[in-house]
Amino acid sequence: MVYEVVAFQALRDQLKCKEIWVVGADKWCNPDEDLPQEFAERREENYRELRKPLDAAVFVDELREQMTTELTLLNDGMPKLSWLDIAERKSGAIRLTPAEAQPEPKNLRRVKNEVQRRWGVVPLIDMSRKRCCAPAAWTPSPPFLVAAASRRRSWPSACSW
Question: What is the dihedral of CA 19, 24, 30, 36, to 10 degrees?
């Protein structure tokens, strides 16, 4: 049974990135059919519209140069950051100093007031963790649950998030 589960997981992953496809399926069809039929004949025009070079070596060289430049900037800039300490230690190599508390966003007071007006509850909004918590004694009434369920989107089953 474990083997079957692993096999299905591998099939799912391969379907998502079109390493394999299902004949006759709309969603997971042949990846060769994704491109326009005249793509090969109009290759230069298509690459020009994408603003990419025709030669793969040129593309890789440009990408490598861009990555090298950005990594060099990061490497040069990190020692100058006062809030970052990188050292060899057992507890972890990277240590960040705590950030100072940010001012409350302008619209947060309106959100809190609207939640209190609609549901008669004062929301506990923790901006450091970017989450909202209702008081422990509060339980939503059935109309609230129905409204929340009706607004919930149904995502395709292939979405991993």
Answer: -160
Whether 44 contacts 54, CB under 8 Å: yes
Q: What confidence tens digit (pLDDT) does each residue in 143-158 have?
A: 444 444 444 444 444 4
**Lookup: tokens for 120:** 């008669």
The conformation of residue 29, written as its DSSP 8-state character, comes to -
Take residue 79 and report the two structure tokens written for it. 């020692």
Residues 6+ apart with CB under 8 A from 101: 128
Is the pTM value of this prediction over 0.70? no
Give the β-pairing of 131-133 and 84-86. Answer: unpaired
User: How far is Cα 64 from Cα 106, in angstroms, rounded to an integer?
Assistant: 42
Reading the block at residue 90, the tokens are 């057992």
**Whether the Cβ atoms of residue 43 and residue 56 lie closer than 8 Å to each other:** no
